[in-house]
TrEMBL record:
Superkingdom classification of source: Bacteria
Keyword Protein biosynthesis: no
UniProt keyword ATP-binding present: yes
ABC transporter domain location: 4-249
Gene source species: Streptomyces doudnae
Protein name: Fe-S cluster assembly ATPase SufC
Family under the similarity heading: Belongs to the ABC transporter superfamily. Ycf16 family.
């Protein structure tokens, strides 16, 4: 069973000619089939965790380990991480002018599966996945994220998730900017992948509303660059009622 193990992860970033430590010892284990929600105040380092796991060059790992199925993720290049089974749905997906969605998806699937998917079954696979996500077929011919609305960008991230079938999916605020219908459709996509039992999900979110659709097995409070409390789904309700004040004043001030 695939497991992502993060141990005592420390990460710095260079900003304004200074080195700033953002992650200050993150410990987390995500097993295949499990869904973990990470919630926490703005600026506490949640996206930094997501980017560091994906291998963004802006973030320097200064300590700790990250293992996927016992393999050292931190030694891998970004594309090796993706091929090993890590997937990041970004908070702000980037535009890729000149590259169509269909080309992008097929190239990604070829790289990850190790061989080009058979054209006829692939076209059907993409068409059905797009239908489930309520995406117009014309999207396949548009350039990646170019002129996409916020909601369309998020659906496109989930389309990739469904087609690429990673071992561990990190979803960074996939719910932000979605209207109620889109939130339901996107959540259904995540649940389909989840129900396969083959994917571990790390869901970074500010809102408990997405957790009504995607029931987490574990909820973690992130503050000051580390996880300061973990619990079950009930912890999300407590956070909704009480906010993060208790965590930001208890020596867990935001990064
Ligand atoms: N590339 C960067 N350059 C400079 N500072 C950065 C960079 N990335 C993160 N930071 C800083 O690190 C801190 C944590 O940011 P991060 O985006 O990880 O927080 P977050 O918990 O995801 O916040 P939010 O909930 O607002 O999305 C912030 O103070 C941010 O300004």
């Amino acid at each position: 069973m695939a497991t992502l193990e993060i141990r005592d992860l420390h990460v710095t970033v260079e900003a304004d000619n200074a080195t700033k430590e953002i992650l200050k010892g993150v410990d987390l284990t995500v097993k295949q089939g499990e869904t973990h929600a990470i919630m926490g105040p703005n600026g506490s380092g949640k996206s930094t965790l997501a980017y560091s796991l994906a291998g963004h060059p802006k973030y320097t790992i200064t300590g700790g380990t990250v293992l996927l199925d016992g393999e050292d993720v931190l030694e891998m290049s970004v594309d090796e991480r993706a091929r090993a089974g890590l997937f990041l749905a970004m908070q702000y997906p980037v535009e890729v002018p000149g590259v169509s969605v269909s080309n992008f998806l097929r190239t990604s699937a070829t790289a990850i599966r190790g061989e080009a998917p058979k054209l006829r079954t692939w076209v059907k696979e993409v068409k059905e996945a797009m239908q489930r996500l309520n995406m117009d077929p014309s999207f396949a011919e548009r350039n990646v994220n170019e002129g996409f609305s916020g909601g369309e960008k998020k659906r496109h991230e989930i389309l990739q998730l469904e087609l690429l079938k990673p071992k561990v999916a990190i979803l960074d605020e996939t719910d932000s900017g979605l209207d109620v219908d889109a939130l339901r459709i996107v959540s259904e996509g995540v649940n389909r992948v989840r129900e396969s039992g083959e994917v571990g999900t790390l869901l970074i979110t500010h809102y408990t509303r997405i957790l009504r659709y995607i029931k987490p097995d574990h909820v973690h409070v992130f503050s000051g660059g580390r996880i300061v409390e973990s619990g079950g789904a009930e912890l999300a309700d407590k956070l909704e009622d009480e906010g993060y004040e208790a965590y930001t004043t208890k020596g867990g001030a935001s990064a």
